[in-house]
Amino acid sequence: MQRYEKGEAQPTLEMIRKLSKALTVSADRLLFDDDERGPDDSLRLQFEALQQFDDDERATAQAVLEGLILKHQARQSQLRMQPKKKASG
């Protein structure tokens, strides 16, 4: 454990799984700081409100979010595919 904490060694995925079970925490909890995962405060309340939705409303909200995520990913992919402009100098 000390070697992992000191950064002297990296645990395998199997070791992370075992640690997660032994410590009864998620692997995310072991791998990420509290502010690295989950929505930021500006979205957290909105996501909490989704818990009050019925199944149909929740499915609609999920479909909208998935569509927005796919649109964003497509845009990012297009930007990566564009030829880099040479800096003038």
From TrEMBL:
Residue ranges annotated for the HTH cro/C1-type domain, each copy included: 2-30
Gene3D superfamilies, per the entry: lambda repressor-like DNA-binding domains
Domain of life: Bacteria
Gene Ontology MF terms: DNA binding
InterPro entries according to UniProt: Cro/C1-type_HTH, Lambda_DNA-bd_dom_sf, RstR
Pfam families in alphabetical order: HTH_3
Protein name stated in the entry: HTH cro/C1-type domain-containing protein
Origin species: Pseudoxanthomonas broegbernensis
